[in-house]
């Protein structure tokens, strides 16, 4: 199976390690993994900001970039949700049938990373090692658009050194919301603050999530408040052993 | 300062800085979020009931004109007078006319959001009528001269202490501390108002087309008193509230209280059908229904259509992390939270509420808990699209998105630009790897650092790794 990794623009720009961690996990499933070089951004920022035309242009481009793959895997519930749930909607309004068909085809075989390595190509051995207490934050799109809930937790539980402690309101938004975090900085900070309180209550040394956006938001608030000892990690970093 | 839907940002900032409000908002979680989850456990087929409820609402809206005509005929047959109001000033004119016709001086009101929407109290006051709110929360707000901050719990933003102070100031009685004592104090003031009133105004949770009834669910006895004691009763309600049959209402009633307050059923469910009949023990001599459009029919068949399914339970706001942090007044109009962020621009026009459709992370919690399955995030996104088309968003924002789009469509340019940005931010961050002021993202760094990029993009590192 030819598996395309879509790294997401945030991973590309801010924390490439997450991309390499995802690559390592996918390779561990035995899949033939490719990372098409022409990929950029899936168009979600434009889509959620109401610029449908830009979103459609980027969706078409992404579909072209990933056309040769049997499956596409994304280390982000939010971008995977965009490809899987929202590209078909953009397709509805696409005047050109060939483009619309390409968007639908891509949507049908796009998976969020934890979903792929638990359900589609089960990972036999988790390559990483991690020692310590962690808590898991459910990122909104992954949870509500794709139903990602138990998968990442079960994967983390397979690392013998990991102890998972649930936080209060793990399913409540951390306040990132893409451009929301910039447009409504104060409200967004207040939301992140609440998330950080719940993380601190668990006594965990790391908060783990499946979306880099949430992680940057949470980490940013933790650092601003002086909590330097707690790490904000993508589950792929933990599972692949790239966290250290 | 008068609240306005155009000033979400300023109002939200004020809410965040208000310690009393913040502690009052904590109550929402304990009461309504936990309450709803527990009440739903009692239904062993909650999902099926929810599907049925969404279907009833969708079916009715697909033939709204037909059901409204049926309602009108049935209500008239039961002896009610039915009035149609196209907008708020129609509502107020009709109310003043009804009052004049029946020689009304004093009015009592039960809770109704649509009369808030139409500023009925103000209009009736101008016409020389004395109006008393009788729902405990609304009564408190009338004393405080404040609008509601929640559609189910209008006074959720106030603490017991504030209410005790307010009663001392207005009632000029010794300060009482406990909730039962405060309730008793309000009751002492309200009872004479009920007895003296010539007219009672209520809303309606549903209108039943087959029987011509207005149905009200409430937890306070004031609803029954306001609808049965005065000579004249007027039910004011939005046209979207109609439901075909009593059986349909029964389905919706299995959800409404559970989603609203976590109750299996409210203390009172009143079904009001026409004026009192000769052998009735009580009830008004004259029964009027005002069917209010006020922008609702304009929503039919558009991207906002699904919003008309709303049964005003408030679950979306209780579960919205934005509402939980800023409360209802930040939204600036009658309807707050996610439903308000759709309804306010839909009813007042998108230019009046530019920030509201954007004041959401699209986390989806609202849609997850909506009993009639309104796709709120989709509706919010549609409104954002409309705003972009009408150039209602700031030019800088629209340009930034377009430029990003342009860059992302050209992989080579994108690669060069992202490489430059990653390095620049790395340098700017310095040693500890945190950016305290982001050049183009001041909103972000107001309350958070921005974790610095590692300095090389994935695409650069991946290419290098391939060569190695």
TrEMBL record, chain A:
GO CC annotations on file: cytosol
InterPro entries linked to this entry: Cys_rich_dom
Top-level taxon: Bacteria
One annotated GO molecular function: oxidoreductase activity
Pfam families attached to this UniProt entry: CCG
Location of the Cysteine-rich domain: 3-84, 134-218
Protein name (database record): Fe-S oxidoreductase
TrEMBL record, chain B:
Domain 4Fe-4S ferredoxin-type, first and last residues per copy: 301-331
InterPro entries, per the entry: 4Fe4S_Fe-S-bd, 4Fe4S_Fe_S_CS, FTHF_cligase-like_sf, Helical_ferredxn, LUD_dom, LutB/LldF, LutB_C, NagB/RpiA_transferase-like
GO biological process, any: lactate metabolic process
Keyword Cell division: no
Keywords: 4Fe-4S, Electron transport, Iron, Iron-sulfur, Metal-binding, Repeat, Transport
Record PROSITE patterns: 4FE4S_FER_1, 4FE4S_FER_2
Signal peptide: none
Any one Gene Ontology molecular-function term assigned to this protein's record: metal ion binding
NCBIfam families membership: LutB/LldF family L-lactate oxidation iron-sulfur protein
Matches recorded under PANTHER family: LACTATE UTILIZATION PROTEIN B
Protein's name in the database: (Fe-S)-binding protein
Provenance organism: Sulfurifustis variabilis
